[in-house]
Input
Amino acid sequence: MIQLTRLNKNPLVVNSDLIKFVEQAPDTVITLVNGDKIVVRESAQDVLDLVVQFRRSVLQGVMLCAEPKGSPLAPRAIADASKDDAENAGAMDAANGQGHLSPAAGK
Output
């Protein structure tokens, strides 16, 4: 969510995921995915900067919440899929960094 200001100086909070596009002509008009239009005092560049700042903060929060490798809560789907691929169809030889395919161990 980003905080903006209507032309009458009333504050407004907008869900940035619902913004379809922003126009600057001469007032800033935000068009939402449902077709609603909102006119705000901020420039189009200011709106863009606020959206980018908000999304960075969300992604940064996700990174801060990620569990360290080896934690019982860490995601394992990719590692498990790679292990299955290595056992069933051969895999990249990561141990020596050669980058060649080697036969699956024990088969």
User: Anything to note?
Assistant: Confidence is low (pLDDT under 50) at residues 88-107. Strands lie at 2-5, 11-14, 19-24, 28-32, 37-40, 91-92, 101-102. The two ends are 54 Å apart (CA to CA). The first helix runs from residue 44 to 65.
